[in-house]
Design goal:
mainly alpha; membrane; 17 helices; Cit_transptr-like_dom; about 75% helix; single chain
């Protein structure tokens, strides 16, 4: 009982730190939590070391892609996307409807290619600015950013930290993973468009005829080229079992060196700013959190969840797996839920692993605690959320999210039955 209590305290402390702390304070809690479970013997050093080594490439990719996303933002790519959204909406017969559609599609693509953190931190302010520039209420686009950051993260193995954690366990190639998830991704993106449209007020704040024409800024060409090549290498390399951390790191180094040496004020970025963008303390915190979750799994957490998971790969069984994962993500956060559930789902088959990812990805939109992306969005100083943001977020999350999890899982199961795993 003492070992179980230590594991619960350590995992709980990490969850609280993830929700309310950041930076060095968050790291300190993680180190203390990992030290507690190691010190009392709740997890063996060998098991803890294996958990950290398994997660290192994933965490390395997270650091590299956060730096790369910051450099891409510095190169004007996100401003360019926001300009395209605003210009496309202004030319439409119904600017409000077109604005939401373009924002949803942009958030879905950015999430899939550059991870959900890029959407909530870098794209969300640009979309909100586009709405205000057209005299529109920014809330629907604000909501689109955070919801699509979760739901659209199921497409690629590199779209979400949880996907990377589970990718090897699924035993699928990069393209096979994507093929199995693509129909479900299309369905949930379409559904999110409906959700965001319902959040939109019927009238514009300012008549579009009085809004000045939108100028679309030109992005830095080298940034676009490096980004395109990097994404292509990640996809092709995934088929060859190349860890995505390496192309992401190479791109970050290329653009980072240019940002440090260039004399162009818009592109220049000090190395200290780049290091801060990588959120290294948070990356180390994630590794410590993994040790605490491993202890929790070893001390009965895995057995408890195992009793809740069905063994089959039929649609009904996979829906249950996804719903259990959704509940676990919103109680524990999606990362520890993934670390606990994937080892239990992997022996059942790749469909069960993908069902877990639907649950912790799409299902993370139910509550603030569902994903760290929700918290990054909520704390983003560049966003001006409405005063009742919590009520609005959870009204959509609790009502719609479970339905989307069921539908997405059923579509994924049907795709797996058609194309095979």
């Amino acid at each position: 009982m003492i070992l179980l209590a230590a594991a619960v305290v350590a995992a709980g402390a990490c969850l609280v730190a993830a929700l309310v702390l950041d930076g060095v304070r968050q790291l300190v809690v993680g180190v203390l939590a990992a030290g507690l479970v190691l010190g009392v013997g709740a997890v063996s050093p060998d098991h803890a070391e294996r958990a950290v080594l398994d997660l290192l490439p994933v965490v390395g990719y997270l650091v590299a892609i956060l730096v790369l996303a910051t450099l891409v933002e510095r190169g004007g790519v996100f401003a360019w996307l926001g300009g395209i959204v605003a210009a496309g909406a202004r030319r439409a017969a119904d600017p409000g409807r077109r604005l939401v559609l373009l924002a949803v599609l942009t958030a879905a693509v950015v999430t899939a290619l550059l991870t959900l953190d890029a959407t909530v931190v870098l794209l969300a302010p640009v979309l909100a600015l586009a709405a205000r520039g057209l005299g529109r209420d920014p809330w629907p686009l604000d909501l689109a950013s955070v919801r699509l950051a979760n739901t659209a993260s199921i497409l690629l193995p590199v779209s979400n930290l949880t996907n990377l954690v589970a990718f090897d366990a699924a035993g699928l190639t990069f393209l096979h993973f994507t093929l199995l998830m693509a129909p479900a991704w299309l369905v949930v993106v379409a559904a999110e468009h409906v959700v965001v449209r319902r959040a939109q007020r019927p009238a514009a704040v300012t008549p579009v005829a009085t809004v000045a024409p939108v100028a679309v800024p030109r992005p830095d060409r080298l940034t676009l080229v490096v980004l395109g090549v990097t994404l292509a290498v990640i996809v092709v390399g995934g088929q060859l079992h190349l860890e995505p951390v390496w192309p992401a790191l190479a791109a970050a180094v290329v653009l980072g060196v240019r940002a440090a040496l260039t004399r162009r004020p818009g592109l220049r970025l000090a190395p200290t700013r780049l290091l801060a963008a990588g959120q290294v303390p948070f990356a180390v915190f994630v590794l410590c959190w993994a040790i605490a979750v491993t202890a929790l799994a070893d001390r009965g957490g895995a057995d408890l969840l195992d009793r809740l998971l069905p063994d089959g790969t039929g649609v009904g069984s996979l829906v249950v797996v996804a719903l259990v994962a959704m509940v676990a993500a919103n109680l524990l956060n999606n990362l520890p839920a993934t670390l606990l559930l994937v080892p239990l789902a992997a022996p059942v088959g790749p469909e069960a692993v993908l069902a877990v990812l639907v649950g912790v990805g799409v299902g993370a939109s139910a509550t603030y605690a569902g994903s760290l992306a929700n918290l990054l969005w909520l704390r983003n100083p560049a966003l001006e959320h409405p005063a009742d943001v919590g009520r609005r977020f959870h009204a959509a999350g609790l009502l719609v999210t479970p339905v989307l999890v069921v539908v997405a899982t059923a579509v994924m199961a049907g795709t797996a039955a058609l194309v095979g795993t």
